[in-house]
Amino acid sequence: MSVEGDRLKALRFEGPEAIPVSVGILPAAWMKQREALDELVHRYPEVCGGQAQDDRDYEAVGGTYVSGDHVDAWGCVWQNVHTGMESIVTGHPVPRREDIRTLTAPEQDVGTPHGFMYLRLQDLRGFEELMLDFAEEPPELQRLIDTVLEYNLRQVRLSLEAAGSAGPGSEADAGRIFYFGDDLGMQDALPMSPSKWRRYLKPCFEQIYRPIKEAGHYVYMHTDGHIAEIIGDLKDCGVDVVNPQIGANGFDALEEVAKGRICVDLDLDRQMMPFWTPADIDAHVREAVERLGSREGGLWLKAEIGDDVPLANAEAVFSALEKYRFHYA
């Protein structure tokens, strides 16, 4: 069966032949490890998903992964001090609450990049100002949310139109997975109470994902941080696969709220990968499979390799994913 076929079977709990696995390698890791990392990738083609190249340009980095300042379509300023790693937003175009009243969405259509809803609010206002908005609940808060939401709804409509143009027999025609990313949590908690999240943000994700579900497609949502309390709500919104961080949520919580209820693409503990031994990594992947997986499915596994992960640990990640993806076969 194809990798995509296993992904669909896993998210439908229909007994995939193997646990779907994937590896993301940051540009900074390629810049640092170069040929040695390429040699590892060539040795694990199934795990690394076709990332092997014979003529890779290790210095080829673009967009916000290049050091310096970058301005996005909304006017947010992204600052990068380390080429090969992602930027962070340091310039917020709507710093005062009264500025919200004149905010307009960009005419440029840029889709739904990472941070398209909640983080977009934070990027526009700044974290502290946005938290004050959620605490005090002025009318400008709903106006800000509505402006961002309407833009996202337009982007989804355009994406669905593009998917439909592929024609009968295409991946879109058979039921496509639409990928979204928005970091809703912090290290050990939501940035607001679950009840406030349900009041202001849950309706946004419901509206954004509804036309995708009505068209017969699937929704994948990456979301960093502690989100255990709202995983059930994300499922209500139409999410078929949720991509949580194990380090921020823990096995106990994810087993309780997610196992058997929604497909989990588990983000293996990248905060610990630089410090663990290869044996620790093997045990971590095995525990993930045993605690969150099943013969029926419901589990994918994802690993991210940064420039702080030793080559021996990167190899341990690839090896463990190769070994344990057949645990239930």
Structural description of this entry:
This protein starts with a helix and ends in a 5-residue tail after the last helix. It has 329 residues and is of the alpha/beta class. A hairpin with a 5-residue loop joins β2 and β3. It has 15 helices and nine strands. The strands form two sheets. It has a six-stranded parallel beta sheet. α3 packs parallel to α15, α10 packs across α11 and α14 runs parallel beside α15.
Q: Can you summarize the main beta sheet?
A: 6 strands, parallel
How many runs of DSSP E, i.e. beta strands?
A: 9
**Portion in helices:** 40-55%
Silhouette:
globular
User: What number is the mean pLDDT?
Assistant: 95
Order of strands, widest sheet: 1-9-8-7-6-5
Low-confidence stretches: 166-172
- Estimate the strand proportion: 5-15%
How many distinct helices?
A: 15
Q: What is the ordering of alpha helices and beta strands?
A: HEHHHEEEHHHHEHHEHEHHEHEH
Structural class: alpha/beta
* First-to-last CA distance: 12 Å
Rg over CA atoms, rounded to whole Å, is 20 Å
Keywords:
alpha/beta; 15 helices; 329 residues; six-stranded parallel β-sheet; single chain; 44% helix
